[in-house]
Design goal:
This is Random slug protein 5. The chain has 2 domains: 55 residues; 163 residues, Phosphatidylinositol Transfer Protein Sec14p (3-Layer(aba) Sandwich), CATH 3.40.525. The protein is 42% helix and 12% strand. It is built from 10 helices and 6 strands. A 6-stranded mixed sheet has the order 1-6-5-4-3-2, with helices on both faces. Helix 7 links the parallel strand 4 and strand 5.
């Protein structure tokens, strides 16, 4: 088993991903990191240029704050034209997916019934934490892919509402305990990934993938090409025997979900 883990770690690391295999050194202290990210003068200039460009094409973009514009700029390596096109496309998509400005739980009853996503607590940098139980996701014909997309929007909006300017990221623990063939819904996962990358850029801080079964890797090969390079760097696959140690490096025990040995109860995302 150790040989397989090491081989997998090497493959993931070669692809720009990370597999956590190192234990925290005994006695090492992990302190809270201050992460308020102020807008620089260079960024302000880019933001002004982008705002002027976007507002000419979509007056509703006046409601977009400077931090959101900066996230789109960073997602496109500070290229104003590319970031503007990305934001305009997102604003148009947003009007279609959530014409009332937000998603109500009443619009996604079939997805909520799965009880598969939770939110509670923050990491040591103040980022809100979500837990996704992949073994509870099933392709739901009743609501179809559109309802699943609305569920993703509700979840991401909930997470973003817990952030603040200059501290805009969130952390996700993707738990694949009991993940099987019935949960291998590649279309849904690619759709969720597209929403995250295209309309919530620079929001994901880290994604810890835990309790990973070998069955998962077949689907991973399908999803992997759709992950952009920036997102890949934020994904850590955690070995079971190092699970709590790894999570405690970023999350205090008082904020760690109870199911991982912490003290924080989980709250369904639609109730958070």
């Amino acid at each position: 088993m150790e040989g397989k883990v090491e081989a997998l770690a090497k493959e993931l690391n070669d692809n720009g991903l990370h597999f956590e295999t190192k234990l925290q050194q005994e006695g090492e202290l992990v302190t809270q990191v201050k992460c308020d990210d102020k807008i620089s003068e260079e960024e302000k200039n880019k933001i002004r240029l982008m705002r002027a460009l976007v507002e000419k094409q979509d007056p509703s973009s006046k409601e977009v704050d400077d931090f959101e514009i900066r996230r789109f700029l960073r997602a496109r390596d500070m290229d104003v034209d590319k970031a503007s096109a990305m934001l305009l496309k997102c604003l148009k998509w947003r009007k279609n997916i959530a014409p009332n400005g937000s998603i109500s739980p009443s619009e996604i009853p079939n997805q909520i019934a799965h009880n598969k996503m939770f939110m509670q607590g923050v990491d040591k940098q103040g980022h809100p934490i979500a837990v996704v139980l992949g073994g509870r996701h099933f392709q739901n014909k009743l609501g179809g892919p559109d309802e699943f997309k609305r569920f993703v929007v509700l979840a991401l909006d909930k997470l973003c509402s817990r952030t603040s300017p200059g501290r805009e990221k969130f952390v996700v623990i993707g738990d694949l305990q009991s993940f099987g063939y019935a949960n291998s819904d590649a279309r849904a996962y690619i759709g969720a990934l597209s929403i995250l990358q295209d309309c919530y850029p620079e929001r994901l801080g880290k994604l810890f993938v835990v309790h990973v079964p070998y069955l998962f890797w077949a689907m991973w090969k399908i999803v992997y090409p759709f992950i952009d390079n920036k997102t890949k760097k934020k994904i850590t696959f955690v070995e079971d025997k190092r699970l709590m140690t790894t999570l405690l490096q970023d999350i205090d025990e008082s904020q760690l979900p109870e199911i991982y040995g912490g003290k924080m109860p989980l709250v369904p995302i639609h109730e958070a």
